[in-house]
Specification:
- The protein has 337 residues and is mainly β.
- It has three helices and 24 strands.
- The strands form four sheets. Strands 1, 2, 3, 4, 5, 6, 7, 8 and 9 form a nine-stranded antiparallel β-sheet that branches. The chain has an eight-stranded antiparallel β-barrel with strand order 10-11-12-13-14-15-16-19.
- Strand 20 (291-292) and strand 21 form a beta hairpin.
- It is globular and about 75 Å long.
């Protein structure tokens, strides 16, 4: 999440993972009927964000941009956090304010208190194209993994009943680990299938878990193309509480994993039972291999592997140990179920 740990005055640039073409919400959505979800384009170049200014100075998570477009240089300060290759969250005093000196702009850099108390304006950037040859955005695994049944409620103030009161609807990230497939069933609005692509997840400044999603099927302004959600996993049951904001922001009608414009309660579906041998074996991976790594987690007799190329996660259970020195293991494996 950090640019540099100290002030740099001679060179100011954005690392390659920040660069690209992004969509940002250009109007605030409300609960009133007929709200439109409109987006504008923001490009981050190596040394500038053209609509806001040229990179002038960076320190910690803040950057001062110099805007020469008014005929005379003025300066703005932005707090910038990279949450994934696809999601950047920016806080600023406001785009309508610009200062004649760097020192004056420096005094307006959003503090953690400004962010936590929502005094600073939030701007969410969702990458739509990268500067790579194919232009594709990063593939990011969803933090919600497996199969679930869910209830669903829209808190738009128009009715008191729950839209999908029974856990008959289904959600899963199968067959692709970076996409959530939702099948709404026995709901007041009928049946609906939709897919959401996970763009990134992070722990917010408030300690909550956030998730950014993209609906590639949306082609009109009547539905949000980008969504921000909060989620919480109940460790004892695996139940997931998931709430969405009304639009692409992470603040508009989004208060907690239990209180948002749309709320869902996901109950995990019990996976298929592994072969009986899994329950009788004493096989265990060695102590030196236990722990969490970039795309691998090993815990006792269980191994989780994330395969970016295949867009899948594999769960493997140790069955038996072989070879002269026990360096080979027979495994029972399955993908997202």
């Amino acid at each position: 999440d950090y640019f540099l740990s100290s002030t740099v005055s001679c060179v100011c640039y954005f690392p390659v993972e920040y660069q690209g073409i992004f969509a940002t919400q250009s109007s605030l959505s409300t609960l009133s009927a007929g709200s439109l979800h409109q987006y504008s384009e923001v490009t981050i170049l190596p040394d500038a964000i053209p609509v806001w200014g040229v990179c002038h100075k960076k320190f910690d998570n803040s950057v001062i941009l110099r805007d020469p477009t008014g005929g005379q240089d003025c300066y703005r300060c932005f707090h910038v956090s990279l949450h994934s290759g696809n999601v950047i969250q920016i806080y600023t005093e406001g785009l309508n304010k610009c200062y004649s000196t760097e020192e004056a702009a420096l005094q307006t850099c959003p503090t953690m208190h400004d962010i936590q108390t929502k005094r600073a304006r939030e701007i969410m950037l969702y990458k739509s194209r990268s500067f790579t040859q194919d232009g594709l955005i990063d593939q990011v695994f969803c933090p919600i993994n497996g199969r679930y049944r869910f209830t669903y409620d829209v808190n738009d103030g128009t009715e008191s009943s729950i839209e999908c009161p029974e856990p008959s609807s289904e959600l899963s990230n199968c067959p692709k680990g970076s996409r959530l497939q939702l099948r709404f069933r026995r709901c007041s609005f009928g049946e609906l299938d939709m897919g959401l692509r996970c763009l990134g997840n992070w722990e917010g400044h408030d300690g909550r878990n956030y998730l950014a999603l993209w609906d590639p099927e949306v082609s009109t302004d009547n539905q949000p193309r980008y969504r921000c959600a909060m989620y919480s996993v109940e460790e004892t049951t695996g139940r997931v509480y998931l709430s969405f904001s009304i639009d692409a922001t992470c603040t508009n009608h989004l208060h907690s994993p239990w209180d948002g414009y749309e709320t869902m309660v996901l109950t995990p579906v019990t996976p298929l039972a592994p072969p009986a041998i899994v329950h009788t074996t004493t096989c265990r991976f060695p102590e030196w291999a236990q722990g969490s790594f970039q795309h691998l987690k090993i815990d006792a007799n269980e191994l989780w592997l994330q395969d970016d190329a295949a867009d899948k996660k594999y769960q493997s259970l140790c069955l038996s140990q072989h070879a002269p020195h026990g360096e080979r293991y027979a495994l029972y494996s399955q993908t997202q179920w």
